[in-house]
Amino acid sequence: MTREPTKTGNHPRKETDMASNAEGPADLRAWLTGCVAQYLRRPETEIDPTVRLADYGLDSVYALALCGDIETHLDMRLSETLVWDYPTVDELAAHLEELVAAQQPAGAR
Amino acid sequence: MTAPARLDDLERLLGDPADDGNPIGNTAVLAADERDEMFAAGERVLDEYCLNAEFVPRRYGGRLAGADDLIQVLRTVFRRDPALGLGYGVSSFISSVNVWASGSPEQARWVAGTLLSNQKIASAYHELAHGNDFSRAEFAARPQAQGGWRLTGRKEVVTNVKRARGLVLLARTDERAGSRSHSQILVDKQAVPARAIRDLTRYPSVGMRGVQLGGIEFTDCPVGDEAVVGRPGQGIETALRSFQLTRTAIPTMLAGVLDSGLRLTLDFAAGRRLYGRSVADQPEVRRLLVDAYLDLLICDSLGLVVSRALHLLPGQTSMYASAVKYLVAKRLMDAMHQLSLVLGAHFYLREGRYGIFQKLLRDLAPAGFGHAARVACLGTMLPQVPLMARRGWVNPDPAGPDLFRIGEELPELPFDRLRVSAGGLDGLVGSLTAAADQIVGDSPEQRRLRLLAGQFRAELGDLAEAGAALHPGDLGVDARVEVLGLPARYATVLAASACLNVWLVRGDGPAWVVAALDRLARSIGRPGADRGDRYREPLYQELAARHADRRSFDLSRRVLPG
């Protein structure tokens, strides 16, 4: 996706000490589940990764905030409508896995 | 033709509103309002001018280039009759932006041709049961096995739905919940079977009384695949992107209402003597007038800067547009209410020289809820606050100075580059810091401006801290009142940046900008400038001089007819 061209490079800093794209698929899925649970103020055990987030009441603009959190967590720029297009925890985790894998330099794999 | 030349043409066609002999003047406008009718003579003049061409991008044969020019032209209409502005004009503007943003070239050409032949296109989003929550819309388009769609459902309280040639309908195209379940459907009412659509009765209203608010019901109405605007499921995204233009432009056009309100109040205050002196000489009256003048300049600065940002920083305007809708609508309504206190009983009369004031006041009210309610705008901004707090509000890059050069040539509106989220980028806030650094020197004004800029930087620091500490559960529709205060305060910081930067590139005298920043700072509980009130008397003199010269009170200072 295209973003505003920045004149002097407004790249986000590493905003969290958790930022790491070395974690495995299970970690990412668990992190996402925790994140969604926080948004909904519900225990993680109640979040079914196959249920659409909108069915939990996570509406369109709310989903933008989640996208910002994922960007910060993975230290990646993402399409802001990501959560609309991958509307469950499982679909999101699988898609993010692919993006993270594609980003790793070949030697690191 | 440049915007000022177009504006002069339109001003000439519409003439002096205060002239009783003018068939397009206040007397005729009021008479139409009393009959709950659209102002027919005004509509004929706008047909002659082809106002709709202002909404059509140049590439499709219209006159739309810079959003700031569009606002100036429409303000000329809103200054006289907001019902004409909405009911003749901007309802077609609202529907057309969906098509410019996401429609096919064929759809865009059809919309352009319809508008350029003085026909209307209604924006049919609203369902009474769901209000601003259009993601809950029930109006359904169901895909057919053989291709095409069938439309079923009702749209209610929709401007011009009955007389419009075209409709842009927001329809559910997927039964599942989510943000990919809706689409805009473009319908030519003459091309669908008459039995499949039915007009609902008109909704009478308090203000905008002439505007034809109606409803429509579709029953199993067939349309082709080519009726869908963009991809099926793209509707929420198209709305959130393209309405950034309308949410910025329409409130800023409505500043014309306050411009007229100020003129009427000055006419009244200058001509009326009470207790042995002119009303205009009473300090309290001058205070109210100067406050209203400052609010007009604040609204104009923020609205026009954001309208330019749509061209120059299109990825960043999702928060800005909602901030305009929130802040400008409120300041305009509050200022008109304050002016009504000066007019006293005269604002309550529906005829005579000041009779138009009560109509302007009533017609302005939809600024607070029409298209999107002010509080809904805050709710739309809130989910972006945490990311802004982490990125955009900590040493952001400034925007280039072109952002603040009102009326200067702009690149074509890049509808395809408008984004639903700013992704934590904030050039307008960056420009606040950059502007503050440019104010060097030791005059009292420069010292006060530095002091005021410092207060907005401190505010931004507080916002960043509070925003970063927000719990994700605080961001939804049930957000606490103080949490919704964060985007509201942010809108005030944006307004301060717009005023300061517009002033810097214009090279005006400093009175207005010191007083405007002082007013904005106090509105968010900051101390303001030491003795900021010393600028009030020179501002009153400036206001009175513009009134005497028959100039507009907004940034353009245009000479008005009459």
What does this entry look like structurally?
- The complex is a heterodimer of chains A (109) and B (562).
- Chain A has 109 residues and is mainly α.
- Chain A has one domain: Orthogonal Bundle (Non-ribosomal Peptide Synthetase Peptidyl Carrier Protein, Chain A), CATH 1.10.1200.
- Chain A has helices spanning 25-40, 60-74, 82-85, 89-103.
- Chain B has helices spanning 3-14, 26-34, 40-49, 67-80, 82-102, 105-116, 235-253, 255-271, 283-312, 317-343, 355-364, 374-381, 385-390, 427-438, 444-468, 481-506, 511-523, 536-548, and strands spanning 121-124, 140-143, 149-159, 166-172, 182-188, 197-200, 213-223, 228-229, 273-274, 277-278.
- Chain B contains 18 helices and 10 strands.
- In chain B, strands 1-4-5-8 form a 4-stranded mixed beta sheet. Chain B has a 4-stranded antiparallel beta sheet with strand order 2-3-7-6, with helices on one face.
- In chain B, a hairpin with a 2-residue loop joins strand 9 and strand 10 (277-278).
- Chain B has 3 domains: 3-119, Acyl-CoA dehydrogenase/oxidase, N-terminal domain (Butyryl-Coa Dehydrogenase, subunit A, domain 1, Orthogonal Bundle), CATH 1.10.540.10; 122-231, Butyryl-CoA Dehydrogenase, subunit A, domain 2 (Beta Barrel), CATH 2.40.110.10; 254-548, Butyryl-CoA Dehydrogenase, subunit A, domain 3 (Up-down Bundle).
- Chain B has 562 residues and is α+β, with helices and mostly antiparallel strands.
- Chain A binds chain B through residues 2-4, 6-8, 10, 12, 15, 35, 38-41, 52-55, 57, 59-69, 71-72, 77, 80-81, 83-85, 87, and chain B through 135, 176-180, 236-237, 240, 313-316, 379-380, 382-384, 386-387, 390-391, 396-397, 400, 417, 419-421, 423-425, 471-473, 475-477.
- Chain A: Residues 1-25 are annotated as: Disordered.
- Chain A: Residues 26-100 form the Carrier domain.
- Chain A: InterPro entries: ACP-like_sf (IPR036736), PKS_PP-bd (IPR020806), PP-bd_ACP (IPR009081).
- Chain A: Keywords: Phosphopantetheine, Phosphoprotein.
